[in-house]
Design a protein that fits this description.
endopeptidase fold (from Nostoc punctiforme), 6-stranded antiparallel beta sheet, globular, single chain, 27% helix, alpha+beta
């Protein structure tokens, strides 16, 4: 699959509700899948022990998107990886898509793959959203 050949809305509808699994399909693996399927980008793996909150925070803290050639965008752009933090420490990720005036597709427990607008996520629990455009891909 590749971006130009896939309708983004149809793709999101097909993965919506896909089950979350701490080992097999967590938030980062969801980001990797969407990036590969829609944009042809193979993102680096981030080893997450979802059962250990400190380990998750450490994994995202040491990920350093800029080290992978990613560029931070002050505003959301289609296909951007969204790094989410409750306050300052990133602990969740999703992908911004320019559908319906902007949505973030992410995966968490117990919802599985879900779609929310940036403001909804910020009000609900993720106060800081950072948008990164992946540059170099592996």
């Amino acid at each position: 699959m590749y971006a130009d050949k896939i309708n983004h809305a149809d793709y999101v509808n097909n993965i919506l509700g896909m089950a979350y699994d701490a080992i097999e399909f967590n938030c980062w693996q969801c980001v990797q899948k969407i990036q590969a399927d829609l944009f042809g980008r193979i993102l680096p793996s981030v080893v997450l022990d979802i059962t250990d909150r400190r380990a998750v925070l450490h994994a995202f803290e040491t990920h350093e998107p800029e080290a992978h050639g990613w560029i931070e965008s002050p505003t959301p752009v289609n296909g951007a990886v969204v790094m989410m933090a409750k306050r300052t420490l990133t602990a969740h990720a999703g992908v911004f898509l320019s559908l319906d005036e902007g949505i973030i597709v992410h995966c968490d427990q117990p919802h599985g793959v879900a779609v929310e607008r940036p403001l909804e996520l910020q009000v609900r629990c993720w106060g800081r959203l950072q948008y990164f455009i992946p540059g170099k891909v592996q």
